[in-house]
């Protein structure tokens, strides 16, 4: 568990161990890959054609 330590001079020290850093890295990698996939799908031709259709119906 990350730890915040109050120092005598009034500053604070934030510390994490290597296992916690690996877990954070893994979580960020998973979310980044998921986000990239969503962006690729949203930028794809299927979404564009669907939006064109919706615009033509609404207009």
Outline the structure in words.
The chain is α+β, with helices and mostly antiparallel strands and 59 residues long. 66% of the residues lie in helices and 14% in strands. The chain has two helices and two strands. It has a two-stranded antiparallel sheet with strand order 1-2. The protein is elongated, with a radius of gyration of 23 Å. The protein starts with a strand and ends with a helix. The model has no long low-confidence stretch (mean pLDDT 90).
Key descriptive features of the protein:
59 residues, 66% helix, alpha+beta
> In order across it, which strands form the biggest sheet?
1-2
Write down the Rg.
Answer: 23 Å
Reading the helices and strands in chain order gives EEHH
Strand content: 5-15%
Unreliable runs:
none
Distance between the termini: 55 Å
Quaternary structure type: single chain
**Roughly what percent helix?**
55-70%
Total beta strands: 2
Judged by helices, strands and strand pairing, the structural class is alpha+beta
What does the average pLDDT come to? Answer: 90
Shape: elongated
Q: Give the helix tally.
A: 2
- Biggest sheet details: 2 strands, antiparallel
Summary, kept brief:
The chain has 59 residues and is of the alpha+beta class.
Topology:
Blueprint: E1 3-6, E2 12-15, H1 18-42, H2 45-58
Antiparallel strand pairs: 1-2
């Amino acid at each position: 568990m990350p730890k915040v330590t109050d120092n005598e001079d009034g500053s604070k020290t934030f510390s994490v161990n290597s296992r916690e850093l690996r877990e954070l890295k893994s979580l960020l990698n998973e979310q980044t890959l998921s986000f990239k996939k969503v962006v690729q799908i949203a930028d794809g031709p299927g979404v564009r054609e669907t939006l064109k259709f919706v615009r033509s119906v609404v207009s």
